[in-house]
Amino acid sequence: MNNVGERTRKVRSDKKIRVNPALDLDTHHKLKRLALACDMTKTALAEEILRLAVNSVSIISYLQEEHDADEFRVIPVNENGRLVY
Hints:
- The chain is mainly alpha-helical.
- It is built from three helices and two strands; from the N terminus they run αααββ.
- The chain has a two-stranded antiparallel ribbon.
């Protein structure tokens, strides 16, 4: 098949990936109330909370300790003010 003249689509650098966590009622209630207090949607608040968590060395360490991450463990490294692993 000849692709002459076909344009390739650019990949957006700000593309978002959907993650739909199943929350228990207590967590959902707290998220809903906090989102209301912060005047934002539950989705926007959950996104911000997740972004904070995956960029926090202490939360990353806590989660790996809590879940016995021994065989595969991420090591967060600060590169020019950005946490990578």
